[in-house]
Amino acid sequence: MSPQVNVWAEALGGTGPQRVEALRSRGGKRPAKLTANTRGSEAVRAAHTNKSWAIAARRDGVEVPREEAEELGPDVLGDTKPRLVIAAINLDMLSQRRAVGSRTFADVLLDAVRTSIRTWS
């Protein structure tokens, strides 16, 4: 990977609602109350990083230690260079029709994805 671009790549873990909260958080809209995040980071973009299956972050061409990445989320990359943020979820989550209020879980997840994309662009 080029040192001219900082990179954050993450495979989200946790329950379905925790993954939705994580996506919103990565986009800068951390939910006021998280589901079961007793040991996680308090940083705005780092909700549920402790539940991720994998995290890889490179800043200025150098790998960032996982502990530091978990603490700050994508903000660990800084603002000095362009950054590429990749968040992988289980696509089966988009087909869930379980009710969440008046919407389905798939609707809630899609809204979180849209929020994240708008904030990162």
The pLDDT mean sits at 82
- How far apart lie the N and C ends? 20 Å
Oligomer: single chain
Biggest sheet: strands side by side, in what order? 3-2-1-4
**Biggest sheet architecture:** 4 strands, mixed
Net shape: globular
Strands, helices and their partners?
Elements: E1 6-11, H1 16-26, E2 54-59, E3 62-63, H2 66-72, E4 83-88, E5 99-100, E6 103-104, H3 105-120
Helix pairs in contact: 1-3
Keywords:
28% helix; alpha+beta; two-stranded antiparallel ribbon; four-stranded mixed sheet
Q: In words, what does this structure look like?
A:
With 121 residues, this protein is α+β, with helices and mostly antiparallel strands. Helices cover 28% and strands 20% of the residues. The protein has 3 helices and 6 strands. It has helices spanning 16-26, 66-72, 105-120, and strands at 6-11, 54-59, 62-63, 83-88, 99-100, 103-104. The strands form 2 sheets. It has a 4-stranded mixed sheet, with helices on one face. Strands 5-6 form a two-stranded antiparallel sheet. Helix 1 runs parallel beside helix 3. It is globular, with a radius of gyration of 14 Å. It starts with 5 loop residues before the first strand and ends with a helix.
Brief summary:
By secondary structure, the protein is an alpha+beta fold. It has 3 helices and 6 strands.
